[in-house]
Amino acid sequence: MTSITVEASQLTRIYGGREAVSDVSFTLKKGEVLGFLGPNGAGKSTTMKMLTGNLAPSSGAVKICGIDMMDNPREAKALIGYLPESPPLYREFTVDEFLTIAARLHRVSRSHIKKAVQVAKERCGLTEMGKRLIENLSKGYQQRVGIAQAIIHNPMVVILDEPTVGLDPIQIRDIRALIKELGGEHSVILSTHILPEVEMICDHVQIIHKGQLVFNGAIDVLKQQRHSNRLLVGFSHPPAAEALLLIPGVQQVETLASGLLRITHTEGANPTEALMHAAVSNGWGLHQINPDQTSMEEVFVQLTFQDQAA
Amino acid sequence: MILNIARKELKSLFVSPMGWIILALLQLVFGAYFFQGVDQYFQVMSGVMRPEERMGVTEFVGKNIFSIASFVMLFAVPLLSMRLISEERRAQTLTFLFSAPLSLLEIVLGKFLGLVAFLSILILLIAGMMFSLNLWAEIDFGYIIANLLGLWLLVASFSALGLYVSSLTQQPVVAAIITFVALFGLLLLDHFLAGDPGSLITHFSLMRHFEPFSRGLLDTQDFVYFLLFIITFLILTVRRLDADRLRG
Fold first, then answer.
1. A90 at the B interface (CB within 8 A)?
2. Do B95 and A90 touch (CB under 8 A)?
3. What b/e string do you get for A150-180 counting C-beta neighbours within 10 Å, with b at 16 or more?
């Protein structure tokens, strides 16, 4: 078998003449975690609905492990676990009852249902909640039940739409660990608008903006974009910009509102050492120097902004 | 798979007091009518002189119960069917079913069967009461079975219509009202068109097709009518749900 688990080709969805998602194509391999990023209303959820067969694409195709979602929806859906934006929970049932129903509907064989429910509860930290009514659980626990229902049948592909919304920081950490763990044997697609989350748990990132894929690549590529050729320097007695420009490698000096100086240097020639020497010998009172990393947010804004300008 | 969904529907009726209360109240009504029927049988029959006016206890009591049962179901079914899909739509749990490896037909049939199974409990209770007459009297089993079958088909038709209406809206109450009005209209078509008995429209009346059953008559025409009625609304429901997927 091929190791490609999800293959989306030229997915397009038109809502009332407006393209909510246009021409989105990507593939996902087994064991990868794919992060779906994008501002609100960018088409993340729409794409996910199409991947899970909840929405028919206007054009394009989805293949799950080589099975076409349009032609064989049942076989394809059996390979997917899906947590939509709002967790689909029958509030009148207890956690155990609900997970049992989920297991049955996902064709877990009769003899394995009990075990599957047990394992799913353990993985999502719900072991003590089995007898509680879903209605009475807090939002965070409901979210966990939602994740448990998505992984109960041990699917090849787990699709999570904003899985960490409404959780407290400790729960978020647990869920992230769980997603990383899932990434080992399953493929995971998750959408979020929390950027550090993507940085922490995803191997691949896609940024979607106004229905279009503006970035698709490994997380390392995105991280590299952050390493800039800028330094942030703080002096107690800042010298004139001209004096700094004399130091080899320095291209540009800019004074920030905080009193720090942003020094842009030529690519590859890092003037940090020279700067320190100069600072010491001239008594500028250097108290801070560090590389000025662009945050993920900035990369994100750049990418989505470029698209707007184009 | 269909059975799993039916099981889930049945379970959700019984985890809330709703299912139990409806069962208890309806059984109270049917029990009261049954009791009254048995009680009055001797009084009425002893007053009847001419032999052609005499009737058996089965028919006397049965008539009472089956006519009230069909009338009561007219209110009970919309209340039970209203939540089937509209509630899931509102709570956004339909996604759960759509994402599971199920076809739409399985989902619809499962929901339909779940409701019909619940209503069958009521019908079985009525059957139990009627057959208990056999302890004291010789009863007409054919008459009772025809009536039970008719009632069952009638209730299943109500459910199919209720299920369809429930798929049209997000508000369970709206679904209940529309279902009730539609059923009421279909039941009374006969009544409205009493002056024009040959009219084609009267053939659509549910009552007209239920009535032979209540006389103990099994006619394939009526069977076919009920079956077509059920199939039509189930297919309409599937199509409505499919439109969700296509239109979003």
1. yes
2. no
3. bbbbebbbbbbbbbbbebeeebbebbbebbe
A294 pLDDT above the threshold of 70: no
- Quick: pLDDT tens for A148-170: 999 898 888 999 988 887 778 88
User: Which of B9, B88, B96 is the best residue to mutate to test the A interface, defined by the most A CB atoms within 10 Å of its own CB?
Assistant: B96
Mean pLDDT of chain A: 82
A124 SS3 class: coil
Residues of B in contact with A46 (CB under 8 A): 248
Does the domain made of A1-79+156-227 have the CATH classification 3.30.720.120? no
Q: How far apart are CA B222 and CA A174, in angstroms?
A: 61
A228-292 in CATH: which number? 3.30.70.260
Range of the domain at B187: 2-247
Q: What ipTM was assigned to the predicted interfaces of this complex?
A: 0.84
Point out the residues of chain B with pLDDT beneath 50: none
This prediction has a pTM of 0.84
Q: Could you give phi then psi for residue A233, rounded to 5 degrees? A: -125, 140
* Beta-carbon separation of A54 and B1 below 8 A: no
